[in-house]
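Notes from the 1:1 (GR / supervisor)

We went over the backlog. Supervisor wanted to see one worked example end to end before approving the batch request, so GR pasted a single chain during the call. The sequence is below; no edits were made to it. Supervisor asked that the structure be written out right there so they could see what the output format looks like.
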Amino acid sequence: MSRKIKGLGIEVIAILLTILIFWIPFYFVVVNALKDKKESSLLNLAWPSTIHLWDNLKEVITARDYMLLRAFYNSTLLTVISITVLILVCAMAGFVMQRRNDRATPWLNFLVLSGLIIPPAIVPTIWVLNGIGLFKTLPGLVLVEVALGFPFGVLLYKGFMSGIPREVDEAAVVDGSSGFGLFYRIILPLLQPVTATIIVTSSVGIFNDFTNPLYFFPGAKNATVQLTLYNFQSQFVTQWNLLFMNILLITLPPLVLFIFFNKKIVAGMTAGSVKG
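Structure output shown during the call:
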């Protein structure tokens, strides 16, 4: 009986912490997004006396010649291309690293783990991108996003693929399949659980990325959703109602994606850890 009471107490504490850490800040954003300029400047949790949902929404969307719509397009395009490249590169690298067993394997594992430990350097990255003509371009930013997500993705794929028997590879080779045919027709379809995990987690990170577009993809026409927050902030005046409405709009897509695919994330992470 005491164990049940203890378990119930832990669950209650966990729920209260969730409310405190996530739902109260989210409620704060929502209520201030519904207020007018004067009420939102108070920055409190009080419900607005009058709701200005459509007025704030219209003003945020039309601000700076519909910059938010361009930003949604840029962020969506960046996310889709980056995720596609990331999945293909990480899956192939994880397959080779899991199946390969020679003197170079420990060094490859070390380099991948180093990518999780060593922080990215802004200035050298700009220098490299500028040298190859990809600075201030979408392909250059895609390469940066892929490079940052590469170590995590490779480790997940490698751990998951350890549970796929080598007999599958041998049977495909006996049937005359090439290396690329083996990977794309047989191995890649088996990686759907971990692929779903990488799609959701990496999509949220790339879509909400602020630093990399700011440094590597500057320009008003290249703005991503997070950079539109500057539209309603200045040194002297901040339009809090419009700022919170902007935050609400750019938060909803990743939030909906995370809610609907939450079970797939857990399943992919668990499968990868167990099989690894």
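Supervisor's comment: The two ends are 37 Å apart (CA to CA).
Batch request approved.
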